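Try it yourself: sequence plus iron/sulfur cluster, in.
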Amino acid sequence: MSKLRYALFTGCTAKQSTPEQYMSTMAVAKKLGIELVELVEASCCGASHLQDYDEFLSLVLNARNIAYAEKHGLTMVTICNTCQLNISMTKHKLDKDPELKAKVNEKLAEVGLEYKGTSQIIHFLYAIIDDIGLDKIREMVVRPLSQFNIAPFYGCHNIRPSELQNETHKTAESPYNPTSLDDLIIACGGESVDYEEKNKCCGFHVELQAPKTAAVLTGNAIAGAMDNNADMMVTPCPLCHLKLDTQAEHAGEAIGRELDMPVLHMQQMVGLALGCDPKELGLEHHVVDVNFV
Amino acid sequence: MSDKIETKKVKFKVFRFNADTDYLPKYEDYEMEVTSEEVMLDILNRIKFNHDGSFSYRRSCRHGICGACAMKVNGRSTLACKERMFDLIDLFGDELTIEPLSIKRAVKDLVIDKKDFWDKHNAVNPYVVADIDEEPESENIVSPEEAEQLLDADYCIQCGACHYACPVIEINEEFFGPAAFAAAYRFSADVRDSDDERLKTVNEMGQGVWDCVKCFECAEACPKDVNPIEKITKLHQMAFKEGIAENNVAVRHAVGFEKSMAKRGVLDEGGLVLYSEGLGIVKHIPVALKMFRKGKIPLPWNIPTSENMDEIQKLMKSSSTVKF
Ligand code: SF4
Ligand code: SF4
Ligand code: FES
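Structure, out:
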């Protein structure tokens, strides 16, 4: 098999509030023999908030992001559910509407770029499952996570809207009964925990304007994992991670319970199982200590 | 055809409750052979006709048009008369839990009290507000292009599937919810409409669109593909276009993305919170300190900037379509 190469869209959090997510992405890619070409020219995806304000502008900027992946002739890999949503939504809209695509390209031409629609956009979780394969992961595991109950937290924007998501990857996933992250946990040797909140929302996007809603949703999710004997949670989304890890205390106050739950990024879990040095995975950057390593 | 009918054995757990007599609900178990021809409503009918005549649920049209039969199977909202049993079995396997749309609002078995749904629906003026010429000389024609602007929001059958799938409804009693927002969009996007209250109503904090967590549950739940979250996004955009967006934390949070991106291409996360919150920033200090100690907040000079920033700035100037 020739070496897998992707264009990496890091998103903003990986370079600021979740540095461990960037570190663990790099460490896991190295272990898996994946080459990541970082899109250093990329801008923020707009995170659905720029989309609320100025949709056309958000389309132009995301088309520019994709255009850079196209220039490399590579599939774009995202490492954040919300980046995945907004960039693949842009692609979806432009690919089905030639008139809109032409309007966007008129703007991009001003800076010498063009959106063609030749690059796929896929979240790293699905790139691992589709292109590396769970069997291969299973083979490569050197430190099986066999003593752990691990609660998958999927994050909305990787599973909904399902129509959009299922056009980006081969792994068929139902938002009502998702399995990809469970399968990956099992491939890493862990026990996957079933609980009601695993495909629910963490509340991240209203953190500032509706703090109570945001806190209760986060609290319910952590409590659900705790009540089903999880030793840790794992998520493919850094925004969910920020909620579950840095806001756990608030969330506990909101639902009237003490919450204590280490939360791993999907990459950190895979990295641990593949034998990466915990230092490379940035585990010391968590607010809730990851003390089992 | 008839020899092609397949059957599968399914275990049903059916929610039973009578608000007049019971303190707590219970689940009744039924095991049945289900055929590939059947929809969920057929099973409900079989339970009622063959097992327990007191079993209650709403249904009327059995053609996916009256919205009465919305309920939940394994937590997923659906229309009983439209949902094919074999699709459910493919998705969830052979154990299916049948519940009302909202357990909290159950009156009798699958029948719920939808008062909150209707109150919220009514609160957005779900009708065309227009000065009508009582003796018109010509037809009031809406062109196909103008009708398309409704983005199929007019397909809503008020079944409530999205409303009771929305996580915010369960936490914030004021929140209007996806169906009411879809209705608000449907009428505010109508060229004949001249209501200027509706858009303001759905922009109020607490009850309005700014409290939506963007989980897309409503889009998945809707049996008529109304896609309420798409309409919610449109309502946000309309607020800016019509100049009624107020200067509050939610609005600044949206606008702040543009400001931040114009400077660095990528987001300055701390700067965004500061811009959105203003003085309200103080309440974030305890968490920010914890994050800072763990290396989660870079110092100002370490915040990254996109390469080819000139392109981003040029595009932001030339492609911007809204002002705040
Ligand atoms: S996207 Fe918004 S309106 Fe729709 S279900 Fe989620 S919170 Fe409710
Ligand atoms: S938007 Fe869809 S799910 Fe919601 S009430 Fe209307 S038809 Fe039902
Ligand atoms: S019975 Fe009317 S929608 Fe199902």
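One thing you can check immediately is this: The two ends of chain A are 33 Å apart (CA to CA).
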